Amino acid sequence: MSKPQTSPAPLTLEDARRIIAAGERKADDIGQPMNIAVADAGGNLIAHVRMDGAWMGSIDISIKKAWTSRAFDISTKELATLTQSGGDFFGLHASNDGRVMIFAGGVPLKRDGVVVGAVGVSGGSGKQDHEVAEAAAKAL
């Protein structure tokens, strides 16, 4: 008889706070205030922070980057390259009632090799957003 497969533990608020704190440290290091969002396996927001001085308009973007990364289990930086004009996924950004963000800053969160959520970061350049998201994801 085979052993039943177990799922990794879901993300907790404590996990989300640790992920956000790591993102804040990286944002401080590069001198760019950010919005940082953490979503669970269902794409639902667990926690969000808007650092002092971060753009208000980036709140929604950071949350949507986390959702997008979880919805497709890929970084939004990678997704951006797949959705260029002429590509198979061109126009994807218009799906899901505009929730899909196709620029850098969303990174899946994995536990035991399984995606359990995602982090989304917005407030700087795409390169900065991705760097902060990767640093945040490493905290899991």
UniProtKB/TrEMBL annotation:
<dbReference type="InterPro" id="IPR052517">
    <property type="entry name" value="GlcG_carb_metab_protein"/>
</dbReference>
<dbReference type="Pfam" id="PF03928">
    <property type="entry name" value="HbpS-like"/>
</dbReference>
<dbReference type="InterPro" id="IPR005624">
    <property type="entry name" value="PduO/GlcC-like"/>
</dbReference>
<dbReference type="InterPro" id="IPR038084">
    <property type="entry name" value="PduO/GlcC-like_sf"/>
</dbReference>
<protein>
    <recommendedName>
        <fullName>Cobalamin adenosyltransferase</fullName>
    </recommendedName>
</protein>
